[in-house]
Amino acid sequence: MTQQQLSGYAPTPPAARMENHGSRMVKIAMQSGQDVFARTGSMVAYEGFVQYEPNPPAVRQMASQWLTGEGAPLMKCSGDGLLFLADYGADVVCINLNDEALSVNGTNILAFDAHLQWGVQRVKGMAKFAGQGLFNVGISGTGWVALTSRGTPVVVDCGRGEDETFVDPDALVAWSTNLKMKGRSSFKASSLIGRGSGEAYQLAFSGQGFVVVQPSEDSTDRLRARG
After folding, report:
1. Is the pTM of this model over 0.85?
2. pLDDT 10s digits, 91-133
3. 124, burial (CB in 10 Å: exposed 0-12, middle 13-18, buried 19+)
4. Contact status, residue 103 vs residue 88, Cβ threshold 8 Å
5. pLDDT in tens, 69-85
6. Do 86 and 44 contact (CB within 8 A), yes or no?
7. How far apart are CA 90 and CA 152, in angstroms?
8. At 47, phi and psi to the nearest 5?
9. Cα 143 to Cα 89: distance, rounded to the nearest angstrom
10. I need a surface site. Which of 24, 43, 60, 84 has the fewest CB within 10 A?
């Protein structure tokens, strides 16, 4: 085996603050004073000098609202170098926010710039359809966010036409918060035939923005609490 055989897997020079290395890893160009919040345990490698602070004060302040029962799920990363993160081989999507806001399923957060504003939010309009409330993490400002997806996601631009975009809530990863959202019930007795509930309810999105949807409908990984 020669080094040349492995050269195709070597990291390329950074072209952005956060970018993909392959489809299942994010590479972050770390600089002093530009800290990152990352999912605890997601570091797989780093170059240079990078420090980690589990359960930082900013996360402890939110921990009481983070309803997964897993304690403080984020660590603060700081320093200079290249940081590589992954989450059990899940696909990774990097998004650059430009004075924008994003609502993200908390279990799909891999990393985001620490200077961004964030907090746990309840998604309104879900309880009467699902019998449960849906809690997401709202992230806003200008900076980078890295999300995970169980399989290659589809990113739907809702501003391309007048039609609404309908999404199964259990496959929803994230969406632009300026989108209009409403629930829709389509339950019929015949929908009980086949897998699951027959897509008895969906979320409808419209307006200018995008929705990230993963090819998975595992509702057990949701930030949920009884309504």
Report:
1. no
2. 999 999 999 999 998 889 999 999 999 988 877 655 554 444 4
3. exposed
4. no
5. 444 489 999 999 999 99
6. yes
7. 9
8. -120, 145
9. 24
10. 60
